[in-house]
Amino acid sequence: MKFEVLTQQGKTYQDEIEYVVIKNQEGELAILEDHIPIILYVLEGYLKFVQGQNISYVVVEQAVVEFKDNLLTVLALEAQIGQTLNKANDAFNKM
Prior knowledge:
Blueprint: E1 2-7, E2 10-16, E3 19-24, E4 27-32, E5 38-51, E6 54-68, E7 71-82, H1 85-94
Parallel strand pairs: 1-7
Antiparallel strand pairs: 1-2, 3-4, 3-5, 5-6, 6-7
């Protein structure tokens, strides 16, 4: 599936992934290819993107996540990516 992250500054990230785990105030949700269409709100949380052995994290604030037709779109007020959750959080906090 494809994913893209858009912020106020424009398109921030775009790639191909196998699946994503979304952590928001409600808990965690995994989305795999061909998942039913869904829209989620993330006040503060993160998304874990997995492609084979590669894992990356995007920490987001005030985001809407939409999945439809194997395209995951994240519209966020702010977003920072990192190879680990700690690195993504550090980048987010320095922003």
